[in-house]
Amino acid sequence: MTFHNPTLEIDLSALCANYRRLAGAAPAATAAAVVKCDAYGLGAEAVGRVLHQKENCRSFFVAYSEEGAALRKALGRDAEIFVFNGPFPDFIGTFRDYALTPVLNSLDQAALWAAQMRGAPAALNIDTGMHRLGVSPAVLSALKSMEGLNLTLVMSHLACASEAAHPMNERQRAAFAQIAGQYPSARKSLASSGGALIGENFAFDMVRVGVGLYGVSPLDDRSVPFEPVATLSAPVLQVHTMKAGETVGYGASFTAARNSTLATVALGYGDGYPRAGSNRGSAFLGGALCPIAGRVSMDLIVLDATDAPERPKIGDRAEFFGRAFSIDAAAEACGTIGYELLTGVGGLARQRGGLGGRVARRYLFDGAPAAQSLAGAEGM
Question: Which listed residue (19, 36, 98, 339) is catalytic?
Fold first, then answer.
C-alpha cells in the first residue's frame, strides 16, 4: 500500500462472525455463502477460503460460470458451487471441467443441461412472484417429462425479505412450499440473508447468505446488528482554509457559511465512491463526522473539517465507511444502499500496481494481516 492510495480493509474474522450469526438464525438449514460479483467486491477467493477453512462452509453461489471456475481453483473439490445465471451453450465445458452446478431458470436451460450433461446435478429456480429469473409454475409439467434431468435443489427468491412483515413474503413461502413439495428428493431453498432472519419457516433445507456476511444489513429497519467487515479510508492530501462566501469544487455547488477548514482526500468516483455523495456524504476524520463539501471529483473529495476536534494533517486517513461510520449510514447519506456502495468500491479494489491500481485491498484476521493461506496473493 502506498501513501496516496485509498484502502479497502476487509476483516475476515468479522465476516466469519456474520456467517455464524446468519447460520444460527436457521440452525436446521445448511448455510450456503453467496460470493457473486467477486463476493460483493471483497474478493471471492479470500472470502470463500476463510469460510471453507474456518467455518466449514461447503456450499457456494456465484453468478457466472467463470466465477465458479475461479472459486473452484481456490477451494478444491471439497465444495459444491452453484451458478445462479444457469448454463449457456458456449460454457458447458466450464461446468463440466470445474464440477459446477447450474441453477436452471428456463425450459431452454433445462433442455440444454439434460442433453449435454445428462444425469449431472442441477438446481431449479422457480418464479414465485419476483418475475426476475426463474421457471414459471405453469410450465413445470414439461420439466417433469424431460429425460436426463437430475434436480438436486429446488429454489426461489423472496422479493420483499428486507421488510419482514410484508405480506408478499408469506405468499411466496406458501407458493414455494406447495410447488417444492412436488420434488421430494430435492433440497429446498427460499431464503437469502433477509429471509433467514424473518422466521425459521422460511429456511427450508438451505439458506443462501449474502449481503449480511459482508456487514450490510439485509433488513430495512437494520434491527439485527452485523459486524462491520469492510473499511474504506483515504489519505488527506491537503489541508487549507477558506473564508465565508467562498465556494468549493466544480460548479461551485458548496458555499461556505463561515470561515472553514477543509481537507482534500484521495478518493473519488473513479474509485467507485458515488458522485451522488456530493454535498450529502460524510467521512470520519479528526474525531468527527465531516461532511463532503462540493462535488465528488474523479479522484478527489473535499471534507469540511471545521468542527473536527482535531485539525487534520496531511497523511491522516478519512474513513468513508467502517467501524466509525457504518456502511448502511454512509450509503443512506449518498442516497443509495449498502449493496451498491460496497460493490461499487470493492469492484475496483485490487492489490495491483501501475495503471488502474488505485484502491488497495488489504485482508485482516483477528486484527492482524491475514495469512496467505486465506488472502492468497494479496496476503503476501
Answer: 36
